[in-house]
Amino acid sequence: MTIERKPIRRGGIRSAGYDRGSRILEIEFDTGKVIQHSGVGDEIARRFLSSGSPVSYYRDNIEDEFTSKRVS
């Protein structure tokens, strides 16, 4: 599955994208690491993607709350 990511370029996050059908949030970090979080609801994804401080929102609401796997 390919998730279209949009540039974020803030706080160590290069890009991110969300697939509503599978409820997967994919985040690419400045290091090149790509993580997919599963079970993420629309509202959480929307708030993350529109956040003025996405890395803080990620750490507070996503990182330890949703199952993750490294894909790259």
From TrEMBL:
Pfam families: KTSC. This is KTSC domain-containing protein. InterPro entries: KTSC_dom (IPR025309). Residues 13-66 form the KTSC domain. It comes from Aromatoleum diolicum.
